[in-house]
Amino acid sequence: MTALMVLHELLCGVLLxxxxxxxxxxxxxTSPPILLSFWLLSVSALFATFAPLLISWEPDAVSLLLxxxxxxxxxxxxRYWQQSPPAAFQRxxx
Amino acid sequence: xxxxxxxxxxxxxxxIAVLGPMAGPYALIVxxxxxxxxxxxxxxxxxxxxxxxAFLLRVVTGAxxxxxxxxxxxxxxxRVPAVESVALVAFGIGAMGNGWRPVLxxxxxxxxxxxxxxxxxxxxxxxxPTQ
Lengths: 94, 131
Fold this sequence. Notes:
The structure holds two protein chains of two kinds.
Chain A: H1 3-25, H2 32-54, H3 61-77
Helix pairs in contact in A: 1-2, 1-3
Chain B: H1 11-19, H2 23-43, H3 49-78, H4 82-96, H5 100-127
Helix pairs in contact in B: 2-3, 2-4, 3-4
């Protein structure tokens, strides 16, 4: 197991945790495109976590850079998701 | 010069060494069940992290227990190899989320109905024909 692989799994863990935290904040009133986007991000992070085991995939520097960037975006924007999704992401009441 | 990857152990080999030859199928079940369960988690009313984690644990445990039997049943009934249906079955179980409660309640109701009906028939037989 290489250092790249360990780093990949750690970054996937950060991304999965951020996705999980947001999934606990969203609800049926959240805009469907937002729900779908974060669900796809969660599934992608899950697949990235399991890919070395399921399809013997090995990470490289490019994939790590992308993963780190997405994890950073999620971490930096987490402050706007403290209690609920940002108001702009919620469906407007009729 | 040896190749850089020659001395490294792949994560697949490591997982199989630690968890046995079923590591792959079970990893697939866990992955598919989690992927399915994340959707109901996203749409349910806001929950705490502990409640969310408990929900995911419950759904994934259910999927790990039920998927093997369900895939075997699909294989014997519809001739679809269990290896190919495992991921779909686990995803479906995960996506049902808390939707299992009405299904289980319906099954319990049907069972209670059946038992009470059978009990009623036996009672009629004991009483014999009425005039």
